Amino acid sequence: MKAGTKFIIGGALVLATVGYLMATGIKETGVYYLTPSELATRVQNDRSFYNVGVKMGARVVKGSISRDVATQTITFRATDGQNSWPVTYRGLAPDTFTDEVDVVVEGRLQPDGVFHATTLLAKCGSRYEAAPART
Amino acid sequence: MTDLGNIALWIALLIGVYGSVVGFLAGRSGRAELALSAERSVYVVWGLLAIASAALMRALLAHDFTIEYVAAYTSRNLPVFYTWSAFYAGQKGSLLFWAIVLASFSAIAMLVNRGKNRELMPYVAVVLLVTITFFIAVMVFASNPFERLGFTPPDGRGLNPQLQNPGMVIHPPMLYLGYISIAVPFAFAIAALASGKLDTAWLAAIRRWTIMSWLFLSVGIVLGMWWAYVELGWGGYWAWDPVENASLMPWLAMTAFLHSVMIQEKRGMLKKWNIGLIIGAFLLSIFGTFLTRSGVISSVHSFAQSNVGWFFLIFLVLAGLSAFTLLSYRWPQLAAESTLESMVSREAAFLFNNLIFVVITFSVFWGTVFPVLSEWVRGTKVTVGPPFFNLVNIPLGLLLLLLTGIGPLVAWRKASTANLRRQFIWPVAGMVLTGAALALLRMSDAWAIVAYALAVFVTVTVAQEFVRGTAARHRQYHEAWPLAVVRLVGRNRRRYGGYVVHLGMVMLFVGFAGLAFKKEMEVTLKPGQTAEIRSPYGHVYRVTHQGVSQYEQLNRFVTAASLDVYRDGKYVGVMKSEKRQHMDSMGQPTFEPSTVVAIRSDVREDLYVVFAGSVQGTEEAVYRLTINPLVWWVWYGGLVLAIGGLISMWPTGRGPKIVARRRALEAGYVARVGA
Predict the structure, then answer these.
(1) Which of B107, B185, B356, B610 is close enough to B206 for a disulfide, judged by CB 3.0 to 4.6 Å?
(2) Is residue B652 part of a domain?
């Protein structure tokens, strides 16, 4: 067999392996990214969607944040303007986490209707720019 | 001055268009005076952009808040040191920064090649001028740094505190320099295609440029990691964030190119592939700029969303289409001069190396754009995170590490059994021993064992090369050992510089593998209370909370919490982590509070302390304690990498005597080989 052919076979093997890894990687680690409304529609149509790990992008409802220092638990409501879900998160919130910031929470919506977040990211709409002057 | 800057941009735009047209005509007709005019246009555009940059710099330093950009990114109480970084901290300024840097690189390329590569240079000028003109057009039509506010605010909004960090002053320019300098090799590749002068002249002209862009990208990426580690406070340095990925992809493509180009030089193979890689690297660098500016993919690092991103997308598509059309037009003229003779050869090792680099690039690309793709195809956004990238890239990365050891040692064309035995007996022995020892010590992570075994394998191959090379000089020329080492490296800079880069890579892998043993805990402590955390080596860190203090400092209000740290019962010092609330010059809080972490670093592990806040204003504090093993190796690996890169690209002497001697040697070589 010519070396070129051998290389093509070897290359194809590498590609197939990587393709397989990528496909399983996306299947196993891919996470739905939903808005609160999309999440509401999903659980309405499919009860089993409770307990599926999702990411939810939403905004923190003003005045809804409460922190329990003893258990290091933070609860707040996350909204997209139409629907909102109560979120509970145990751990340290990022510096940028305050009222009305955009957050991305990753976790599961439990059947009790509370979103249990395992990660909490606060997005400053434009992180490296000052907040627009508040009037 | 502001008007001057604005006018300079407009004239630069016109000259840029003029130069592009003239350069194209020069390329088609071969008329020297047209070529000269195109080259001079490059210098003029550079001069005009320099004027515009000086105008913006002056406005920043003079606190001219009538300019929107100045008001948005600086304030009166911003330290001067950081006022300079405001030049590129925002969208508009960074566009000007791109343009002036690209113009400077272009001018240098013109200057260096003023008497050379006559067929190529008109087209090189065209490609560079078109790119510069594109950036100027984006500025004057969509995002002008000299835009006026119409009123004068008393003070600016100031610079984001997270950018007020020394790492941030050098990291973005480095990355930009890397991104931008890829344009020069790209221009030469396109010029070779356009002019049909497809011999190795264009490769020779860009050899040092490619190493330089690679070096800037590498340093930029490592500095970015360092910044994220010390500034963002989440305890890591790489999160597979889209913007990080955007910097990694061109780096991967450039690294692949630096290797595959050697095959073209030695064996005349891979010509299409090499041009494709350069085009790919350039497109990826523009793609990265598009990603960070469009808001298409959400990232913690992005600039504000704006329509500027779409300009970049259009440019990206047009540049890609024209480049690949040209490539397909010249396809038949780019046939390989020789074929692969054996799977056990350096060519084969390099081919696999390239395959893996490209596959990694693709997987990173795929994971980065997957949210957008899945939304198009299935209507739902699906995101992938670090688990995906790690799953795919850990095995691929380790395979690359293996090839790092094999590639440089295996013979060209076809390796004999004797060659293999001579080169690999010690490295393989080292690898097997390390792997076995770590397995016996019950290291808990299989990938880490593989990584460390391979690290030893590569290190031994490199050490062997140095020892054999030095010994040969010692024997042959009777040079003292130290002199022999210096001469060995000095006479073969690309090769031995490359080995040093490989060593740096090994150190980086050692650091990456250390992540498998990271430990983290959160504690709430009253003053005087203690907590303990055990490192993977079995050391015990005991920390005692000292209390919380508050004070004002420069442009910020600081809340600091301190810990007394003992390691294995021995006092090692105080670690202080801060929360900073930045203030404007009226004493009003600006931005969100930011955290300053405390890090105690040594060769083995870092203790990383984050003060997460005090409990309801009391001195009771919440801390996150992290043990990050082997992070030191990442930073110093980056340093070694950079030194290796510098060695590779350091110019060799050009004195007439040396050149004459080299010519004679080359003539002799050609005569011998009969080429």
Answers:
(1) B185
(2) yes
